[in-house]
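Supplementary Methods, section 5.1.

A reviewer requested that the exact input to the structure prediction be made available. We therefore reproduce it here, unchanged from the version used in the analyses.
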Amino acid sequence: MTFPLAIDLPFLLNNPNKAYAIGVSISSTERKVNTSLNTTIVYINTSFLIPVANFTFAKDAVDAKKINFTNTSGYGVSYNWNFGDGSAVSTEKSPIHIYASAGTYTVTLTTAGVTGDAQKSLKTASVVVN
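The structure derived from this sequence is encoded token-by-token as follows.
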């Protein structure tokens, strides 16, 4: 038996944190089931859809100007990275960035979720070139 469930996400996002009566109809070609319509109350909490921006970073073992960023954000669907050096913004999930010169840069990750809400995580990356 399979139980497909379709959820109207845009409707839920426009009507958050409410209780809904959902009708469930069960059918099977494999065995006899009670086909009467059953209703249950379901509480949909959309707060779990709010993104939380976060990341870690590490220097490349060979090139000290090359930084590997690892996105550890929760519930994000799109990402914008500002590396603090005037370079173009990256929309990759976990980018690698090469700085032109040594220095201290403020890196900002903006993570957006399905609700469109955004949260920023600020991190200072120290880049030292020998």
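Strands lie at 18-24, 38-44, 55-59, 66-71, 78-82, 96-98, 103-112, 118-127. These observations are discussed further in the main text.
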